[in-house]
Design brief:
Keywords: 4Fe-4S, DNA replication, Iron, Iron-sulfur, Metal-binding, Primosome. By secondary structure, the protein is mainly alpha-helical. Helix content is 57%, strand content 4%. It is globular and about 65 Å long.
Length: 352
């Protein structure tokens, strides 16, 4: 690959080997004035990841200095993420790096995207404008993707091979990239290196804290999020951390939030950090659950939640109710019990 490609796809084996051959020590990367731009770009890279999008520069083969800055900013960003050692940051960073590569990959030539796939031990055959991938590789790459269209039973399968489009291959590789980066962090960085990195870590810590405060603010309008059952609290925590929910849990969470009064736009805003986020598709699904098709859906009962493995952290109140909405109604009723002398007695409205 050309050096500019190594800078744009720094997670591949060839890029790692190239950086090693350059012979830059951790100390030189941290203190050399010649590396100022690479360090600044490394900080920017992590902050952009927290904000949701790592913006890759336009690189030409002749831009040797820009290529080196971009190439070295990646290992420096990984050092910073490792020194901070925060799971939320690691997930956000890995996802943002992967998404930025997806945006590039879907525009690359078929031969180039196949060369990236080979770095993940995936052999691709190009046939009639489609990409032929063995079903075992497909399952491995698509295993964490919960949307129904990625299920093997919904794919075109012939003689043990799945046929996918170029954009679908790019999306599968995005997930492989995310897994590789996330699985490799945190690195084992010496404490003295982390101390030397403090001036670069501080602005990231500030952004990280602001991000956590924003995600943890419980901005649900008039909806009282502190009254949610443990299963929904768990699901929301995963969504905010960029974890891809199973389809059954995504339906349960969306229908629950709509039934307790959260707006469609607020739910969309919450889901916009999910790996599979698609604005139009998300809006359609939420509006469909909300009754745009004529049927307003209720969230599954507690027994159904348990059947699908979506019951998490059940507390004492959970043992006395049969539906997540009853949990919310009962907790809000108890909360308001002493605020007014005229309360409508709680009733178990939602049954199995």
């Amino acid at each position: 690959m050309e050096e500019k490609d190594l800078a744009l796809y720094p997670f591949i084996t060839e890029a790692s080997a190239y950086v090693s051959e350059l012979g830059f020590s951790l100390e030189r990367l941290l203190v050399s004035r010649a590396m100022d731009s690479a360090r600044s770009r490394g900080v920017e890279r992590v902050i952009q990841a927290l904000q949701g999008e790592i913006r890759k520069p336009q690189l030409l083969g002749s831009d040797e200095s820009k290529i080196l800055i971009e190439l070295l900013s990646y290992p420096f960003a990984r050092i910073l993420v490792s020194c901070i050692d925060d799971n939320f940051l690691i997930r956000r960073y890995a996802l943002a790096e992967a998404v930025s590569c997806y945006d590039l990959l879907r525009l690359e030539s078929s031969e180039f995207i196949c060369s990236i796939a080979s770095d993940f031990q995936v052999d691709i055959v190009i046939s009639n404008h489609e990409f032929d991938i063995h079903f075992t590789d497909y399952i491995r790459l698509a295993s964490s993707m919960k949307a129904l269209e990625w299920k093997l039973v919904n794919r075109k399968l012939r003689k043990g091979h799945v046929y996918i489009s170029k954009e679908e291959l790019a999306r599968l590789l995005q997930e492989a990239i995310r897994g590789r980066i996330q699985g490799s962090l945190p690195l084992d960085i010496p404490e003295d290196i982390c101390r030397m990195s403090t001036p670069y870590i501080d602005p990231i810590q500030t952004e990280l804290q602001q991000m956590k405060e924003t995600f943890g603010s419980g901005d649900f309008g008039a909806v009282e999020s502190n009254m949610f059952p443990p299963c929904m609290v768990h699901a929301i925590s995963n969504v905010r951390a960029g974890v891809n929910l199973a389809h059954s849990m995504r339906f349960a969470l969306t229908s629950f939030l709509r039934n307790v009064g959260m707006s469609v736009d607020d739910i969309i805003a919450m889901f916009n950090v999910s790996p599979d986020f698609d604005m139009d598709k998300t809006r359609y699904q939420i509006e469909h659950i909300s009754g745009s098709s004529g049927t307003e859906y209720k969230p599954p009962s507690c027994s159904t939640m348990r059947t699908y493995g979506n019951c998490y952290g059940a507390d004492e109140l959970c043992s006395r109710i049969k539906h997540p909405l009853n949990y919310y109604r009962r907790k809000t009723w108890f909360k308001n019990k002493n605020e007014s002398s005229q309360q409508i007695p709680f009733s178990e409205k939602y049954q199995e």
